[in-house]
């Protein structure tokens, strides 16, 4: 077995990842390398076993529990990363907002959005413009203080964004290449040490082809409802999540960002980060 | 006592349900009810009324103090207060 990750901090859960096949380990390792480590005792061990179901596919186990089988090619990666997200959502320390998140000098902007709003594309463009990467998928809001901590799993891009970032095309010669979805390994230089960041702006992005870039303020009560609506474990946490999100919304100005051009959207977000400087 | 009769009881001293939490934003309040899993945004007038639903005041006192805070004393406002408290109760925000 190849230990791909010795002890990963998955929003408070200590997870070890082991892979039986060196090629799978090589594909998977870079996608989770920025996830924070923990010294806590391992509470879960996820294993990917090639040929573990007697066939050519792979199986995924969480301890002794079979999670998925008959996985081949890119599906191994898809299902594994999906399962990590699934485990992360069991956290009781963070309100997990479906959002991208980037930062600069410790000041974070979170980008809550439903699927297909352009969140991942925008996060990718911001990281390429030297913003620190916090997350493509989950903005983890600390229930104690309303600050955000990194959840730096790989960025997932759909085919509609491929032409914008041809330089990020993954290695196509391996069995793990998916022509419809790219997972982008985050450069180590874009990952920040694991610590909480002050949220200086909350931006709800919407991509619309040809749209002129506009940044429209959202009032706080509406922002609270919008963020809560994108908080995946909101109903599990109830009023604790309500308070944490309320705390964050009270401190950080909130905007709707409509964009049709990535340069303009990135420039708008840069201005918001600068405006949030102490 | 059925719900309808209870909602018209002038001696009732409404107070927030234990499942209701509030967040304040200037003059507005957002109330979240964990039981119904719904959020309610209250405007200034409703926020004043909500703050007075503290278990110590009856409907008459709530109406009087609301008129004092808003500087308007009218029968229509008193009726509004009553309807607002009834609405809070119907939404499960009061006990």
Fold and architecture overview:
The complex is a heterodimer of chains A (278) and B (95). With 278 residues, chain A is of the alpha+beta class. Helix content of chain A is 28%, strand content 33%. In chain A, the strands form three sheets. In chain A, strands 6, 7, 8, 9, 10, 13, 14 and 15 form an eight-stranded mixed β-sheet that branches. Chain A has a five-stranded mixed β-sheet with strand order 1-2-3-4-5, covered by helices on one side. A two-stranded antiparallel ribbon of chain A has the order 11-12. In chain A, α3 crosses α7 and α4 crosses α6. The model of chain A has no long low-confidence stretch (mean pLDDT 93). Chain B contains four helices and three strands; from the N terminus they run αβββααα. Chain B has 95 residues and is α+β, with helices and mostly antiparallel strands. In chain B, strands 1-2-3 form a three-stranded antiparallel β-sheet. In chain B, 44% of the residues lie in helices and 18% in strands.
Concise account of the structure shown:
Chain A has helices spanning 22-32, 74-88, 119-128, 220-229, 234-237, 239-251, 262-275; strands at residues 2-10, 13-19, 44-50, 58-62, 65-71, 94-104, 107-112, 132-135, 138-142, 148-149, 155-158, 181-184, 198-207, 214-217, 254-259. By secondary structure, chain A is α+β, with helices and mostly antiparallel strands.
- The count of β-strands of chain B is 3
Q: How far is it from the N-terminal to the C-terminal residue of chain B, by CA?
A: 13 Å
Structure class of chain B: alpha+beta
The pair of chains with the biggest contact is: A-B, 15 and 13 residues
- The radius of gyration computed from the alpha-carbon positions of chain B, rounded to a whole number of angstroms, is 13 Å
Radius of gyration of chain A: 19 Å
Let me know the number of strands of chain A: 15
Strand order of the largest sheet of chain B: 1-2-3
Number of helices of chain B: 4
Largest sheet of chain B: 3 strands, antiparallel
Which whole number gives the mean pLDDT of chain B?
A: 89
Order of helices and strands of chain B: HEEEHHH
Q: Give the ordered list of helices and strands of chain A.
A: EEHEEEHEEHEEEEEEEHHHEH
